[in-house]
Amino acid sequence: MKLKTILPAILFLSALTVPVQAQVGEQRYNFTVGINGGVNLNSVSFSPSVQQKNLMAPVGGITLRYVSERFFRMICGVQLEVNYSQHGWDEFYEDYPDLQYTRKMNYVELPFLAHLAFGKEGRGLQFFLNAGPQIGFFLNESYTQSGPWENYPNLTTEQHDMDVENKFDYGITAGLGVELRTKVGHFQVEGRYYYGLSDFYHSTKKDYFARAAHGVIGIKMAYLFDITK
């Protein structure tokens, strides 16, 4: 990705994670912590392209959220997560069902999110939007492979023998969800999408791939409880 494309997106989403102090709102000091978990539906944006289907893999970690104000009907805050997340891809060729290749890549990820919610502050339902930048640190990887790949030289297979070259991952993420607030804690369900801006393989003109970046659809549940109100 070109720098002039990356920087505006990161700066805009980073700005979202800072509560708007210039506006006059009702102040809040609500600090909430909890755990989250779910599944990722992973794919990789390759150029040249590689045929694949979504790879289902786990994600989970801790959530910290601070709500700073209510502005009219909108509840404003920030959210930080520290997650273990598995990415990768699963190659699929409808015309060659005997071929199989799956790569699983493990990361520690930190989403820095603006949290905007509408609904009940006490017991009841809230609907929320989370959006912001995300960074990740590569841990390790594994793969499984089977089939006579040597019989199909027309397929793109360079990625099979390439290790991760860029271990720092970054991109933008956004999600929509619903939160049930009860006297014993808050229960969330959220759908989220992550768009990788970085390539995990080198992607200069002399390299084989011009792009190799993660794309993730996530479905998560979380349990949170208040530390301060």
Automatic annotation (TrEMBL):
Residues 1-22 form the signal peptide. Keywords: Signal. It comes from the Bacteria. InterPro entries: Beta-barrel_OMP_2. It holds the Pfam family OMP_b-brl_2. Residues 21-200 form the Outer membrane protein beta-barrel domain. This is PorT family protein.
